[in-house]
Amino acid sequence: MSPASHRFGALVSRACVLGLAAALVGFTPVVASAQGNGASARILTSRAELDSMAATAERAALKGEDRERNQQVAASIRERLREGDFQIGDRVAVTVQIDSIHTDTLLVRSGRVLILPNGPPPLQLAGVLRSEIQPLVKDEILKYVKARRVDAIPLMRVAIVGEVARPNFYDFVYDAPITTALMAAGGPNAMADLSRSVLRRDGKEVHSSTEVSRAIDRGLTLDKFGMQAGDELVIGRRKEFNFTQIFTYTSALAGLVTVYVALHNAQRAGR
User: Beta-carbon neighbour count of residue 162 at 10 Å?
Assistant: First the structure.
């Protein structure tokens, strides 16, 4: 075989290998990664814990340790302490047991007030943290009725969408496991791939598929995972084989092999 023929044969062989590699890569799931940016403090964190976190960030900023970021963290926490957690449209599940047990899901109304059952005046929630709602509601209701039990549980409304049986918005308690939220939407459908699921907030990805998969495996709650009201848990769709692409790659490889075999046979016949 001449040097030129040898080089051509090597190029064809290399093209066959590259073509096969391209075919394999074309059907390998690609997982996009993104740096999660969870909440600086959990939703049910107490006022004392938040105050301590803000003070720590302020001290770090004064020392020049990542000053701008620590100043932003401290300012955000201080604002939360002043303004509280509740916004118009938030929901609170209130259970009152007098003779029987009665539960209502109450809506935070204009002015950030909660209309309580059994007669108390509207409860002002400006400046109130979610971790403070239980004793506040209990004390207010007990001023007007003699109840055996009063519970007030803030709810989180999040969207469970993508490859689930019933995609929609759902209300959950903050310490509900992510798996409970998933099953409330009917569970994954036949096309679901949990390893490709992401968490979105305001249209932006805040937790990658790797982070969501890890949270599900660890049994994290919505609160511990840093989810917030309005978030979207998007259940991923499994990778499907593209048979047209398979046929294209197979045909290309077959053509390259045919050329190589023909060239090899021609070289042998010319010896």
Answer: 21
What's the rounded Cα separation, in Å, for the pair 114 and 121?
9
pTM of the complete model = 0.65
The helix or strand, by DSSP H or E, that contains position 74, with its residue range, turns out to be helix 67-83
- Say if CB 218 and CB 203 are below 8 A apart: no
Terminal Cα-to-Cα distance of the chain (whole angstroms):
8
Token pair for residue 104? 């209502």
Structure tokens at 193: 């791939």
b/e string for 96-120 if b means 16 or more Cβ within 10 A? beeeeeeeeebebeeebbbebbeeb
Distance CA 149, CA 132 (A): 17
User: How many whole angstroms separate alpha carbon 219 and alpha carbon 180?
Assistant: 10
Q: Minimal CA–CA distance to 47: which of 127, 126, 139, 163?
A: 127
Nearest to 114 by CA among 84, 87, 149: 87
Give pLDDT tens digits for 125-177: 999 999 999 999 999 999 999 999 999 999 999 999 999 999 999 999 988 99
Q: What angle do CA 106, 82, 121 make, to 5 degrees?
A: 35
pLDDT tens, position by position, 208-236: 999 999 999 999 999 899 898 899 999 99
- Mark 12-43 as b/e (b = at least 16 C-beta within 10 Å): beebbeebeeebeeeeeeeeeeeebeeebbbb
3-state secondary structure of 1: coil
| Strands of the chain, DSSP E | 91-97, 101-109, 113-114, 123-124, 149-162, 168-173, 198-201, 204-207, 232-235
